[in-house]
Design goal:
This protein is about 50% helix and about 15% strand. The protein has four helices and three strands. It has a three-stranded parallel β-sheet with strand order 1-2-3, with helices on one face. InterPro entries: Luciferase-like_sf. GO terms for molecular function: oxidoreductase activity, acting on paired donors, with incorporation or reduction of molecular oxygen.
Length: about 100
C-alpha cells in the first residue's frame, strides 16, 4: 500500500497506528519508497485521525503537537456524539487556533 502511495498519492491518511514511533517508522518507509522512484516525499501530506476529548482539550492539542513534530500535516478530528452546543466554535477556539 505504501508503494502505491509513493507512486500516486498527494495525501496519505494513516487510519490506524500503534503509537508515534509506529507512525514515524511507517512515514520513514514511505519516504524511502519515494526516494526509490525519485519523488520528493514532501509532496505527500500525512494525515491522521485524532480523537477529541471535550473534557480534556489539552490532551488533544498535545497529540496534534506531537504528531506535527514528526511531520504529520493534516488532522481529522474525531468528535464524539452527542455534539455539545457551539461545538464548531469550541473546536476553533480550543483546538485549531491554539494548535497553529
Amino acid at each position: 500500500m505504501l508503494r502505491l502511495a509513493a507512486e500516486h498519492a498527494d495525501i496519505w491518511n494513516i487510519p490506524g497506528f500503534a503509537d508515534l514511533d509506529d507512525l514515524k517508522s511507517r512515514s520513514a518507509l514511505l519516504d524511502r519508497y519515494c526516494a526509490e522512484i525519485g519523488r520528493d516525499p514532501a509532496g505527500i501530506t500525512r494525515s491522521i485521525p485524532v480523537p477529541v476529548s471535550y473534557d480534556r482539550p489539552g490532551e488533544t492539542r498535545d497529540a496534534i503537537a506531537a504528531a506535527r513534530e514528526i511531520g504529520i500535516g493534516h488532522f481529522v478530528l474525531s468528535l464524539p456524539a452527542p455534539y455539545p452546543a457551539g461545538v464548531a466554535r469550541w473546536v476553533a477556539d480550543e483546538l485549531i487556533t491554539t494548535s497553529r
